[in-house]
Automatic annotation (TrEMBL):
Protein name, as recorded: Zinc-or iron-chelating domain-containing protein
Pfam families, alphabetized: CxxCxxCC
Superkingdom as given in the UniProt entry: Bacteria
Spans annotated as Disordered: 107-128
Length: 128
């Protein structure tokens, strides 16, 4: 089963991605490439592209709603790691839904997390 986020990318092209500048400073343990950010205020930076009228994070690769992914996924900002896809962990995500709806995509449902092959079904009880 493909992860629904790999055919989405809507949250990366809807929200301003702002976070503390220290996440770009390797000396302080930061991992986000500083050249992918812009200064927002004395304490925060934003991912380039997310301050525009039609935001799109500079790290987003691919086509929204078809095939999209974060080009810096393993080192993405903390605010990105905090966004949960709706129903991946058994709960609704307003952020996910807002981004998807803004791009003409339907909100995710619990059924989007079921493996159509049936591999995620619980094992059948063994007969004695």
């Amino acid at each position: 089963m493909a992860h629904p986020c790999l055919s989405c990318g809507a949250c990366c092209a809807f929200f301003r991605i702002a976070f503390h500048w220290s996440e770009t400073d390797p000396f302080l343990g930061g991992t986000v490439p500083a050249d992918l950010t812009e200064q927002l205020d004395p304490h925060r930076v934003v991912m380039r592209g997310t301050q525009s009228k039609q935001p799109r994070c500079v790290a987003l690769k691919g086509t929204i709603g078809e095939a999209a992914y974060c080009g810096i996924h393993p080192i993405k900002p903390s605010v990105c790691r905090e966004v949960e896809p709706s129903w991946e962990f058994g709960r609704h995500s307003l952020q996910c839904d807002k981004g998807r709806i803004a791009h003409g995509l339907r909100p995710l449902t619990p059924e989007d997390w079921l493996d159509p092959s049936g591999d995620n079904a619980p094992p059948l009880p063994q007969s004695a």
